[in-house]
Specification:
Helix content is 79%, strand content 0%. It is built from four helices and no strands.
């Protein structure tokens, strides 16, 4: 099955199923190699938060926004 066919099938799913599938794919791809590749970016983001250059948002507000965005 080609990537184009998979993408089209993915786009036919309801938003909640798309989000669940993406979450499963992301979690299954996180290993030591992945972590090593993004370690620098993670450190930069932590430093930006500590400097006050990057704002954090509460989980409640993030989840509320996601529910609004993906309400089917």
């Amino acid at each position: 099955m080609s990537a184009a066919v998979l993408r089209e099938a993915f786009l036919q799913l309801p938003a909640l199923e798309q989000a669940t599938l993406l979450d499963d794919l992301i979690i299954s791809s996180c290993d030591a190699t992945w972590e090593a590749r993004i370690a620098h970016e993670m450190e930069e983001r932590v430093d930006a938060v500590n400097r006050g250059d990057m704002a954090l948002h509460s989980a409640d507000s993030v989840f509320a926004e996601m529910r609004d965005r993906f309400r089917a």
